[in-house]
Write a structure and sequence with these properties.
Blueprint (H helix, E strand, L loop, with lengths): L3 H13 L27 H12 L2 H7 L1 H16 L4 E5 L1 H18 L6 E5 L19 H7 L8 E5 L6 H12 L3 E6 L5 H4 L3 E4 L14 H20 L16 H15 L3 H11 L2 H6 L3
Parallel strand pairs: 1-2, 1-3, 3-4, 4-5
Helix pairs in contact: 3-9, 4-9, 5-9, 6-7, 10-11
Length: 292
Amino acid sequence: MILNSECRTLNLELLTKTPGYPTPIPLSTTESSSNYNQLENMGLSELLTNINREDSGVPLAVEKIIPKIQALVEVIGEKMKTGGRLFYIGAGTSGRLGILDASEIPPTYGVPQGKVIGLIAGGDMAIREAVENAEDDASQAWKDLLKHSISENDVLVGIAASGRTPYVIGGVRAARENGIITGCITCNTGSELAASVDYPIEVVVGPEFVTGSTRMKAGTAQKLVLNMISTAAMIQLGRVKGNKMVDMQLTNHKLVNRGVKMIMDELKVSEQEASDLLSRFGNVRKAIESKR
């Protein structure tokens, strides 16, 4: 009987002997050796302190490439103002982060479902479980995008910490060939992915605390950039008033209470009047505008 670990070893041996399997390439920054060693001998306090120390440099790395983020957000805003959509594609952690960002836009800003779409290699099942070899298919992303009728009105952002995920590279290349504006978020410089898009964002955070575990600093960097892209795009679309999410969906008691407080703060009215206005109009923006 072959154990699971033995199966994985055999699969890897077969994979590396497959004709056309890529030859080894130099380690990228995200895969280079950690600045720390003998992690198993560290005390818990030391472990947590060192992880936090490494994480502290991520926002500084993002700050360095704000002009690159701005260039991409400007074109996203222009496309979305004329009815276009924003697509994210990725594999593994990168794909999940794109889906997370996309899924939170409708309830937060009240835009229609499907205005921002996240796709992951391996399909929805891959959100929770690893789907073997899904990221190695360079043609699948474009097939996935065509199911959503992607067009020149839209913008596609490929997310890959390594910058060399075939699923993502194949997707942005096909999109670009079809006249679609493309961008990317990667954590290495000089990557194949960055060379394949119109608006590359390369946020270099250095080696991971656990060597090669890009769910850590690289994942944090990608999340920060995604926050900036989608938030700035929604503000450009007029989905924020002052500093408030006036178009948010009122789907639970917490959000209804938040909506009431927004109205109270904006109109300087009592809680009862704010509650009545919200009940009447069903939307924070409409409630506020009714008194202007």
